[in-house]
């Protein structure tokens, strides 16, 4: 299910044992079909990394940033509502 584009840049900078992953990519919060665990599995496969070792850390790092993006969007929206910016009142008459 897709609810409009809500694209954010996610940045990975993590170390798991002797593996260092430093990457960035775009993630659309509006696409509920996107799955951090599946993305982590595919990335591990593409980079020929051990999925059971690196995958959970990757998925956790992605989810952590997604939550930060969601809270940032919510706070940004609440500030707009409080200031009246971007609010359109519709008449029911």
TrEMBL record:
Chief location category: nucleus
Pfam families xrefs: SNF5
Gene Ontology biological process: chromatin remodeling
GO cellular component: nuclear chromosome
UniProt cross-references to InterPro entries, sorted A to Z: SNF5 (IPR006939)
Origin: domain of life: Eukaryota
Compartments where located: Nucleus
Alphabetical keyword list: Nucleus, Transcription, Transcription regulation
Family to which this protein belongs: Belongs to the SNF5 family.
PANTHER family (UniProt xref): SNF5 (PTHR10019)
Protein name: Uncharacterized protein
Species assigned in the record: Ceratopteris richardii
Lineage, broadest ranks: Eukaryota, Viridiplantae, Streptophyta, Embryophyta, Tracheophyta
